[in-house]
């Protein structure tokens, strides 16, 4: 079964380890790690790790683009690269020995219209023979805010199911195109709903409201609380609590969750199992340093408390 992951805003992720962060002082970097990053790239790396490799489609440019392409090749991650003029960005994660992580994500310079047309043409070509297309991450400057919506509509005409993970204006435009599954986190869902979601009941209501628009599945990541999966047409809600793990890092945990859901979906498993594997995998990701994928044997369904509750008819 062919899977395609579209990563329009890839990056090199660089982690700087420091003793502590001192304002207005020199902060010595004790060590640096670099790895392929950006939400779509994370999803593709996880899918390969879970033995459901996908074709990654992404624009790359400059020396950092060359670095990222070499890293993907070293990981034997299938990728279709669309060369662009702009240099690929570098996201910086500052990890002190104690205290919270700091993250700095530069905004990519504007893509030219010619670059965007080439990217869109390659996306259209990639849909042939594809079962699922994953659209993950923010849109770079120069790409219209309804780009994902356009891709979802074209995918539907080609008989391809779309899975969406983005935020803001691009999310609002894309949900109207009725993707098969969308994955907001709780703040993103609240932004879409236009109101605070202080309780699980309010999150469930908003997820069902969003599902009634897409007529598809809504996967809401809840951080340490796990995740829920809702489908308004069938009036079904599944809830999975996260296992207790020692959290070392939260970068990419939502991408791990989504990749495991997609892998389970591609295996033909039922929705309750999608959520089961998704929460187990996302939780395992938080127990590892950023950018490092855990051994598959550590991703255990048994590690999730009260794995799934089917609240049919809510």
Give a quick set of tags describing it.
single chain; 314 residues; alpha/beta; UDP-N-acetylmuramoyl-L-alanine:D-glutamate ligase; ten-stranded mixed β-sheet; four-stranded mixed β-sheet; 9 helices; 14 strands
Detailed description of the structure:
With 314 residues, the protein is an alpha/beta fold. The chain has a domain of 135 residues: Ribokinase (UDP-N-acetylmuramoyl-L-alanine:D-glutamate ligase), CATH 3.40.1190. Helices cover 35% and strands 23% of the residues. The strands form two sheets. Strands 5-4-1-8-9-10-11-12-13-14 form a ten-stranded mixed sheet, with helices on both faces. Strands 3-2-6-7 form a four-stranded mixed sheet. The chain is globular, with a radius of gyration of 19 Å. The mean pLDDT is 92.
> What's the total helix number?
9
Global morphology: globular
Rg over C-alpha atoms, rounded to the nearest angstrom: 19 Å
Structural class: alpha/beta
Helix/strand order, N-terminal first: EEEHEHEEEHEHEHEHHEEEHHE
Reported for the largest beta sheet, the result is: 10 strands, mixed
List how many beta strands DSSP finds.
14
Q: What top-tier CATH class of the domain at 180-314 fits best?
A: Alpha Beta
| Strand fraction | 15-25%
CATH superfamily of the domain at 180-314: Ribokinase
Distance between the termini: 33 Å
> How are the strands ordered across the major sheet?
5-4-1-8-9-10-11-12-13-14
Average pLDDT for all residues: 92
CATH topology of the domain at 180-314: UDP-N-acetylmuramoyl-L-alanine:D-glutamate ligase
CATH architecture of the domain at 180-314: 3-Layer(aba) Sandwich
Q: Which residues sit in consecutive blocks of at least 5 with pLDDT less than 50? A: none
Helix percent band = 25-40%
């Amino acid at each position: 079964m062919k899977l395609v992951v579209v990563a329009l805003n890839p990056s090199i992720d660089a982690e700087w380890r420091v003793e502590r962060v001192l304002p207005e002082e020199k902060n010595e970097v004790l060590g640096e790690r670099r790895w392929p990053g950006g939400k779509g790239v994370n999803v593709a790396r996880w899918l390969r790790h879970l033995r459901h490799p996908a074709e990654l489609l992404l624009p790359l440019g400059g020396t950092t683009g060359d670095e990222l392409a070499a890293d993907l090749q070293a990981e034997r991650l299938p990728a279709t690269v669309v060369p662009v003029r702009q240099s690929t960005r570098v996201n910086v994660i500052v990890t002190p020995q104690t205290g919270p992580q700091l993250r700095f994500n530069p905004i990519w310079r504007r893509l030219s219209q010619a670059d965007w047309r080439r990217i869109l043409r390659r996306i259209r070509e990639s849909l042939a023979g594809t079962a699922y297309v994953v659209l993950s991450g923010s849109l770079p400057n120069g790409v219209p805010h309804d780009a994902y919506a356009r891709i979802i509509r074209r995918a539907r005409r080609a008989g391809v199911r779309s899975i969406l993970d983005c935020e803001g204006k691009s999310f609002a435009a894309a949900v109207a195109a009725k993707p098969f599954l969308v994955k907001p986190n709780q703040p993103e869902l609240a932004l879409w709903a236009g109101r605070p979601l202080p309780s699980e009941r309010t999150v469930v209501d908003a997820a069902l409201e969003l599902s009634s628009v897409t007529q598809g599945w809504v996967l809401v990541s809840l951080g340490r609380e796990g995740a829920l999966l809702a489908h308004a047409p069938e009036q079904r809600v599944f809830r999975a609590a996260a296992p207790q793990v020692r959290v070392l890092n939260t970068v990419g945990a939502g991408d791990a969750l989504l990749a495991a859901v997609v892998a389970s979906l591609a295996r033909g498993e039922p929705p309750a199992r999608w959520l089961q594997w998704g929460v187990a995998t996302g939780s395992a990701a938080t127990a590892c340093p950023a950018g490092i994928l855990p051994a598959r044997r550590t991703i255990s369904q048994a590690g999730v408390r009260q794995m799934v509750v089917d609240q049919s008819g809510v």
